[in-house]
Amino acid sequence: MVAPSWLRLSRPTPAAPAFCDAGLPIDRRVDDLVSRMTVAKKTSQLGDQSPAIPRLGVPAYKWWSEALHGISSQGRGIHLDGPLRAATSYHRSSSPPRPSTRTSGTASARYDVDELKEEVQEAPRVKMLHCPSKAMDIENEIQVLCDQLAKKSSDSLRLLKELELHRSYGENDMPLYELKGLETLGSTLHIVVHDCASVDFWNSSIQWFRIQPEGSKKEII
């Protein structure tokens, strides 16, 4: 016996997931999408190239180029300056996105401008290279800067050791000069003269030594 058609129970149509509803707040859509993902799937989305999740209708995505520049020529997107002009847009729906490719050149880009605006991902950008040709020089410039800093530090320490080694005292055991400054990189040493009759360091030939801590043996540097 076959039941009448009006008695047959039809299979209910599953409701679209909340993350596919463009009318909901973005935080709610994100929470809904993440709640449907396993730990392995969540981990797989942490890189700049996120693999597809067919079960949820999430396509593969290359965040490094597409989120940085909006619609990029890398992968699926818009590409109007090559030998084959093509513009591709994607529609939000509960099913996996299906690209509809149009090859009408620049007119296609104008026609889909509103649709493309919805797909463009906004991301903060920090343009560190104002001149692209400087990219190859950065490593050399850093090395030169490190060498200059090392030389300045070496000169500072050398001057400090030379002055400390040749410090002279007057009749009242008072130093003829005083050093002010820190023995650190980037510091400035100041020589404060207490006696005008002190030695003129700028016209003196100075030799300094390394003194061994175990004894009084001195080694010429």
TrEMBL record:
Coiled coil: none annotated. The keyword Membrane does not apply. The keyword Ubl conjugation does not apply. Residues 87-109 are annotated as: Disordered. One of its GO terms (biological process) is carbohydrate metabolic process. SUPFAM superfamilies: (Trans)glycosidases. This is Stomatal closure-related actin-binding protein 1.
